[in-house]
Design goal:
about 375 residues; Hypothetical upf0131 protein ytfp; five-stranded mixed beta barrel; 17 strands; ADP-ribose pyrophosphatase; metal-binding
Length: about 375
């Protein structure tokens, strides 16, 4: 049966990625459902169709989808709680057509403003298409509800790739000088592990022999070290880290700057400010960029955007924070500059981003204090 679509799948690149049909655009015809409207779901970025007096819900009919394409589309939509049900629309000749459409269970969602399709495509069309490519790649090993639970992490990874693509690079060797022979994804979850057999261009111009490499595919992060130039104080946070635990560290709680992943559609600076509030209840007035750098590009895709954040750190500003929904239990500590500098020089800090931010602050502290 033909399919009526009215929401994000109207973005043809996304429809192609989800359906797996590169020719799907050749089988699209206009249609509408009078007495209905399409509105954004409250608290979400996708729309729903709903009854509306004097409304007209416009969309398209996708004709001639095969079983494989419908199975893929069903999988994608079920991840977000939508099922395909029969629906009646009017085609371009105002003839009634019985089709199917993806609808949520009754009363699951509430509506916000009318859906701005063009605005959504401009803001999120490319990112959602990139995310859908990963989402559909796990169809054979992850149930739709599980994929839906992992979708925000998939979108965050896609946003990191999108951010990387905007980097103009430094010239010389580039992506065209890497030949991927085989790619696999042995683990997919909050993080992914991807394994590649590849060859790369050597500095003498030849191609290397094939090599096998595995990489942790993470998300770009914003890192913030709060500094009060008036009181000459620094804030660090402390929390349990499973990486230190698995290494066998007798104390897997580490002192760190504030840090968190950059959400899709969020700028690194905004993420830094948000994380300061979530983790430590700190409001940042000014940000000073330290660096945007890879912590370990031989093993992870993560890029760290590191900042010094000017903040008010009075007595009592330290405490506990973090998001309960993310099982965060974070304790903040206020250190005088003398205490922080002594620990920095004595090598007592065990986290590289804290060392980078601390050393930058040591070089620029006098300037920040003079302008406070």
């Amino acid at each position: 049966m033909d399919l009526f679509i009215f929401g994000t799948l109207l973005h043809v690149p996304l429809l192609e990625a989800v359906s797996g049909d590169a020719d799907v655009s050749k089988r699209l015809v206009w249609a509408a459902r009078p007495g209905y409207s399409v509105s954004r779901v409250s608290g979400q970025v996708f729309p729903m169709i709903h009854p509306a007096t004097n409304g007209v819900a416009e969309g398209i009919i996708v004709q001639g989808l095969d079983d494989t394409a419908l199975e893929r589309l069903d999988y994608y939509e079920k991840a977000f709680g939508h099922d395909r049900v029969e629906f009646v629309v009017l085609d371009a000749y105002e003839q009634s057509r019985t089709v199917t459409a993806y609808l949520p269970e009754p009363d699951r969602w509430s509506t916000a403003e009318l859906w701005d399709r063009d605005g959504w495509i401009a803001r999120a069309g490319e990112l959602t298409t990139m995310t859908a490519i990963e989402a559909m790649s796990v169809m054979d090993r992850m149930a739709a509800p599980e994929m839906g639970a992992q979708y925000p992490a998939m979108m965050a990874r896609a946003a990191s790739r999108q951010r990387a693509a905007k980097d103009t690079g430094t010239g010389g060797l580039g992506r065209a000088d890497v030949h991927v022979l085989h790619a696999s994804k042995p683990y997919a979850g909050f993080f992914n592990v991807e394994e590649l057999d590849l060859s790369f261009r050597r500095f003498d111009g030849s191609m290397s022999d094939p090599v096998n490499r595995a990489v942790l595919v993470g998300v770009d992060c914003a890192i913030l070290l709060p500094y009060d130039p008036v009181r000459d104080r620094v804030m660090v946070v402390e929390q349990f880290r499973p990486g230190a635990y698995l290494r066998g560290d007798p104390n897997p709680w580490t002192l760190e700057p504030i840090a968190g992943r950059i959400d899709p559609g969020e700028e690194p600076e905004d993420a830094a400010r948000r994380e300061a509030h979530e983790e430590a209840g700190v409001t940042v007035t000014d940000l000073h960029c330290v660096s945007a750098a890879y912590p370990s590009p031989g093993s992870t895709t993560e890029l760290f955007y590191t900042y010094i954040g000017i903040a008010d750190l009075p007595d009592g500003a330290n405490g506990t924070g973090g998001l309960v929904a993310e099982a965060e239990d974070i304790r903040s500590h206020i250190m005088t500059w003398a205490e922080f500098d002594a620990a920095l020089n004595a090598g007592k800090f065990r986290l590289m981003p804290l060392l980078v931010a601390g050393l930058w602050l040591a070089r620029n502290r006098d300037r920040l204090r003079a302008s406070a």
